[in-house]
Fold:
Amino acid sequence: MGTDRYAYQSRLRRVSPMPKLLLTAVTLVVCLCCSSVAVGLATLVLMGVLITALGGLSPRVYLHFLKVPLVFLVIGCITIVAGSYRAGTEMVAALPVGERLWGFTADGLYLGAQIFCKAMGTIGCMYFLALNTPVTDLTMALEKLHVPRLLVELMELIYRFIFVLAETAEHIHTAQDSRLGYQGFRRSVSSLGMLASMVFLRSWRKAERIYTALESRGYTGSLTTLADQYRPGWGLLPLTALAAAGQIAIWFVEGRLLP
Structure:
């Protein structure tokens, strides 16, 4: 389901998760620290090239995944950029409401562009990791980095129950739809509320059964997973250095060109 399906099909699937995690972390931190429109866009494009060229993912699928956070980012940036200003303020576009002007200033638009591009760049970094590294590989890498065992196991269990919730909701929705539960607005709202309550109850019962199954198989508070055989992936290390150097170079050039 979701990104995991593409992660298992990626050409980087058998590469060790450590260099992939390093590449993601370094480019993400540099992108966040630079707060630059050009760096954000360059990071987004770079990650798209790596995902499609190295991972083998179709560009159409990558663009489809980018559409998921795009709506939230656009709405969030609009709320940051738009504001109320005193009459006489230099505006790019404004609508007079009483004695105030509601609209956009040049500085506000540039700030919104910075936030939007920085967010898109970081999303590209996270997609590189998610679309090329299954969650099981990622948790093993976190264990090697000495992340607290409890935190890693919570990640594994939460990730497992995402699919439990999705499967339960899908079955209930199918049953409701087969009984015309979504014909009309009032009936749809009633069915949706019933679905939400039933998903919680059934997932709780299923979680109890899964925990009982774990205990019956000798669960003592830690999940033991066999390590897979990986390729070292040393080629990603110089790529990480080049990507970070390119980001910093773009940031310097942009700072020189902009007033």
